[in-house]
Amino acid sequence: MTDSPQPAVALGRAAAGAVRSLNHATLGGQVLDWPADACELIGDLSQAAADLPQLLAQVGRRLAAALAAGRLGCDDGTDPAGAVSGAWLFLSDARASAAALARDLGHAQQQLAAVNGGPAAQEDQEGAF
Q: How many C-beta atoms lie closer than 10 Å to residue 42's C-beta?
């Protein structure tokens, strides 16, 4: 095993880090200056959530294939089939949750699509809505 993670693991860490960074960036009051910024961010998050079901299915298939090929084991010496089966069930639930999240974020974005800063906000050069 090498010290550097596999590309998929590194990308997963980067995705988690990006969400963490977004949490920090949106904590203060001087972000997302215009409704269009929030609309765009929500749209990007909707797309990310929409891509998760495919990713999770692919991970589940890789685990199932590794199990079928006899390449998996458990630290305690038990048959890994139960753990992989349990993980598959949770991955299936997560796929449905991600699809629902993507749908809800898409609806939120649609609601915000026509919202603007309004006349008072255009006069106020601070820009925060």
A: 20
Torsion of CA 100, 61, 81, 69, to 10 degrees: 180
Q: Which residues contact 129 (CB under 8 A, 6 or more apart)?
A: 32, 33, 34, 35, 38, 117, 121
**What predicted TM-score, i.e. pTM, was given to this entire model?**
0.83
d(CA 22, CA 4): 25
The structure tokens 């603007």 sit at 116
Q: What is the rounded distance in angstroms from the CA atom of residue 98 to the CA atom of residue 43?
A: 14
- Give the 3-state secondary structure of residue 26: coil
Average pLDDT, the chain: 91
Asked if residues 6 and 76 have their Cβ atoms less than 8 Å apart, the reply is: no
Q: What is the pLDDT of residue 54?
A: 98
92 and 36 Cβ atoms separated by less than 8 Å: no
